[in-house]
Amino acid sequence: MAEGAALRAVRGCLAAFPREARELGWTESIPYLDRPPSPLEFYREWVSPNKPCIIQNAISHWPALRKWTLAYLREVVGPKVVSVAVTPNGYADAVFQDRFVMPEERQMPFTDFLDIVEKKVTSPNIFYVQKQCSNLTKEFPELVCDVQPDIPWMSEALGKKPDAVNFWLGESAAVTSLHKDHYENLYCVISGEKHFLLHPPSDRPFIPYELYQPATYQVSEDGSFEIVDEKNADKVPWIPLDPLNPNLEQYPEYAKAKPLQCTVKAGEMLYLPSLWFHHVQQSHGCIAVNYWYDMEYDLKYSYYQLLDCLTKTVKVL
């Protein structure tokens, strides 16, 4: 009886967390700011309460907004060899066939990649420049002068510089599966559009996680892909659910979640707070740059860890 009462109490807490979080101010849509905020304003109104927003007129002075056409990138970067994620289905770092499958990381001339994006060359596979290791500064230094090395008001608000600045360019079929990051993320769209589906951390009880054998796509001699296990690697916790087409028979709890959707257009910046779940699609040839600032491991992190532990406990019981 005591164990049953304890389990009911835990379930009650899990049900209350998301409801109370929404009542405390998480809105039904992503708000817009018509100007970049001051550091104090941004920290007080957005970072501290862990709330997303779309900021307009924050990058309007960047040369990249008028310069970064595919023709310009072809001229400036040229045939230099860069890292490109290649998959048969557009899903890099995603659950497929009961594996956590990572893309083939192909080293190829940038001009060859642009030929595929511009459909001058056809391929059955999906290509995406998406290496998240500060690839803008490491692989595309020719482009750094067209943006900023950091976002000054964010750096001042957090008292630190970004850990990474990443460059994104790919086909519309390239999709980022639902996941979360331990970063405060400023996502800036240079051309095209990015489509985000978001869940606050309080939706964790409704979002399934499983442990999966990590694997990598590898191209066989006939050009087809095979999935090769990373034999000595630990299993990876990942979300198997597709939020655009959720299997509610398999994951009925997800019906209680309330995703937010937004489109970030050219010249706009999305503030994506740490620990928010996000699924991302894009228009074809969309170009973006994002800044990752390491999160503070403070009360928000402790709250999420508690929520995560309670969710796992209920599942085991």
UniProtKB/TrEMBL annotation:
Source taxon at top rank: Eukaryota
Keyword Repeat: no
MF (Gene Ontology): hydrolase activity; metal ion binding; peptidyl-lysine 3-dioxygenase activity
Record keywords: Cytoplasm, Disulfide bond, Hydrolase, Iron, Metal-binding, Nucleus, Oxidoreductase
Cellular localization per UniProt: Cytoplasm; Nucleus
Cofactor: Fe(2+)
Gene Ontology cellular component list: cytoplasm; nucleus
Occurrences of domain JmjC (ranges): 129-308
Task performed by this protein: Bifunctional enzyme that acts both as an endopeptidase and 2-oxoglutarate-dependent monooxygenase. Endopeptidase that cleaves histones N-terminal tails at the carboxyl side of methylated arginine or lysine residues, to generate 'tailless nucleosomes', which may trigger transcription elongation. Preferentially recognizes and cleaves monomethylated and dimethylated arginine residues of histones H2, H3 and H4. After initial cleavage, continues to digest histones tails via its aminopeptidase activity. Additionally, may play a role in protein biosynthesis by modifying the translation machinery.
Name of this protein: Bifunctional peptidase and (3S)-lysyl hydroxylase JMJD7
Species of provenance: Accipiter nisus (Eurasian sparrowhawk)
Organism classification: Eukaryota, Metazoa, Chordata, Craniata, Vertebrata
